[in-house]
Amino acid sequence: MAASVPNGHPAAGGGTPAVPSSSSLLFLGTGCSSAVPNARCLIQPPDPPCAVCSQSLSVAPELNPNYRCNTSLLIDYCQDEAHKYILIDVGKTFREQVLRWFVHHKIPCVDSIILTHEHADAILGLDDIRIVQPFSPTNDIDPTPIYLSQFAMDSIAQKFPYLVRKKLKEGEEVRRVAQLDWRVIESDVEKPFVTSGLEFVPLPIYDDMHELYAI
Known about the structure:
Layout: E1 9-10, E2 24-29, H1 39-43, H2 51-56, E3 72-79, E4 82-88, H3 94-105, E5 112-114, H4 120-123, E6 144-148, H5 150-159, H6 161-164, E7 180-184, E8 193-195, E9 198-200, E10 203-207, E11 210-214
Parallel strand pairs: 4-5, 5-6, 6-7
Antiparallel strand pairs: 1-4, 2-3, 3-4, 8-9, 10-11
């Protein structure tokens, strides 16, 4: 992996840390598409009640193996005490992940995004990316680079046309939506890509006849 980070975010908390900061991985979610607990299991409890779902609301999330959001990973890449935040997958539970884990770990933003595939548990939080971008009344902010396959790009363009469109129609008012720089990557292990200072190698695999990427 490349090690160069030209400009990053200062370490959270301000001042010079007592020990050098280091890179880390933050698992935002490791659950299935419906997440855990299953909401139906709680509002229509079986008899006897499901032990996993019942326990899931009784323990703090950071201590609770039975509360799991959609699968997602945040890479906190630190170089020279500056941080770059790389998000892998933005599923249905993204807003909850921000409230639970970004706040807890003082993550201020996302610098780049990688999408492994186009299923709901990997993309349906894209509208909420705006909450981890700078605020501007006119939405004139630098777009966040987002890497994905052509297949995923075509699917997302149908689901979120307003996130993909480059220009406003005549007379259309500015809407504060996520600003994204869509970058299609090739299904070729010989063609890695670099984002936020790190090199990634796409490894195409197939799930239910759909192509997705292991990184």
